[in-house]
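Researcher: Here's my situation. A collaborator sent me these components and asked whether they could plausibly form a single complex. I don't have experimental data yet, so a predicted model of the whole assembly would be a useful starting point for our discussion.
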Amino acid sequence: MFDLSSRISKIVFGGLLVVIGFYLFFPIYWMITSALKNNAELYQIIPTFFPHEITFSHFWSAIAESRLLVYLGNSLITSGASATINTILAIYAGYSFAKYRYAGRQPIMLFMLSAQMFPFGLLLISLYPVMTSLGLLDTRPGLILSYIVFALPVATYMLYSYFSQVPDELIDAARADGASDLRIFHTIVLPISVPPIVTVFLYSFMWSWNDLLYSLTLIVSEDKRTIGPGLLLTYLNETNADWGGAMAASLLVSLPIVIAFMFLQRYFIQGVTAGAVK
Amino acid sequence: MSRLELKDVRKSFGTTEVLKGIDLTVEDGEFVAFVGPSGCGKSTLLRLICGLDEITAGQMAIDREIVNDVPPAKRGIAMVFQSYALYPHMSVAQNMGYALRLAGTPKAEIEQRVLAAAKVLRIADYLERKPRQLSGGQRQRVAIGRAIVREPRIFLFDEPLSNLDAALRVEMRIEIARMKERLGTTMIYVTHDQIEAMTLADKIVVLNAGRVEQVGSPLELYNAPVNRFVAGFIGSPKMNFLTLGARHGDSYALPGGEIALRAGLEGATTIGVRPEHLEIVEAGRSGTLGGTLTMTEHLGSDTYAYVALPGTEDLLVVRLSGERALKTNQKVGVALDPGMAHVFAADGTMLASARPVALEAA
């Protein structure tokens, strides 16, 4: 039989891990080395694997670029707001789908999920005139709303599957103890659901933080621009392509997310595997 | 005084009727056990009494007050769930005090009542722990404690011991029996474990397919079941059933022999004999059933012998006291005292019950 501890399988799996690791981490490695190379080395026809001479000039100029801070702030506002609203909506919608029986429950759920079946670029075509007629084009609420449109179905579904696993007896016990439905939800179900809720918040946050297309299309004003399009338009435009600067700036703006993940990953992992082992 | 009265209580889920008209009275301070096969509606009935589900039709009253539409907490009922259903994020003390907190009881009184209940249940040392830090038996005590602190009029137990291992189950069974003595509160107990029902209950309610088959004291059900279902359900190992064959006067042909029943039992089709009322004798003795001993089980205090009779598929179970060395796969005779046979009609109703030996002697 297939023996995972045998020498051959160790070599095979080790090799596979190296390939996967290379595939995942090479872009990050390239980002770091490119940010550290000087322009002459950066644009050599045959690229170097290690920078011959390390320079921090790209980082200094990125820090000096005041617009980056504005973009970062905008991203935090739009991502934070959309993730918060999205999580709150998903909590109540998911619980209702999971624990209450009413007419139209399943059709509504399917209808919500069907929004996921369209490529999100395609929906932008219909979202654009809607935003225009609502006067929400080039506004933060408009962008926040359009992020919610996309993250809400999956967020709801994630919490729906979690809440479905909350034992009915627990809810019955609280009801027998005299708690109202909302009370049960707020004092019993919510406190034991922190890991999946954090997971859903992070998921929604990443969705909008990583977005380029929507922000690029729906936001025109410089002062409302988020970090994705901001980086693109600052460093890579029709007239010049400052790869070193783009890489250094990308690394800098990734830091907040990386740090947040380091603190919240415990919840994230718990949330993703919730239900796997009881 | 807490008397529970059910009048023609029915419950349907969609088009399927789960409870088909239950009439039942539970007297003040009585310990009643609901027993029945899976799906008979015993847990559903308990949920209706608790108020977790609504009654489809009929009437339910506690102390003459109709409680059909009264929410659970207002009924003065506390329920202990099968899975304990402890709130995992709350400490033992918080779990036990949750209902009181919701009812707006002063904090000092909550603490005092929780501590008093915890002492009785010997969990006072664990009040600050979370449920996950407790053993199965301790969790069960917390679940019972949560019910006790509310000082309810009626306790409901939904198979409370089924998640415990055998040794702990016996221990908790004794604990519940003592609690019943001490509190004297009306208790309703759902179980599929006959020993729990027989030992704890003052009154057993046998349910089958949404109907009450029989209500009575444990020994009443054992000695005088009203029909074949109750006869087969109560008792372990099960009662043996034998189909009566051709009749000559008061004598009937049986698989492997013949039996004479008392006169005047018209319409008898089946007899039932409990395993302890049969005896293994040598093959060929007159007035016995001839069969083949296929298997024996030694339990120490008892020996169960399984005998195959000609023309039937079910093995006859004979309970012999003590250790009996018997050779299997040999012809044996099974002695049967006709006086110990329960006689049933074709529709399963009892025509004549056995005369229990103990009662006869007394």
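Model: Some features of this prediction you could bring to your collaborator: Residues 60-273 of chain A form a domain with the MetI-like fold fold (CATH 1.10.3720.10). Chain A is about 75% helix and 0% strand.
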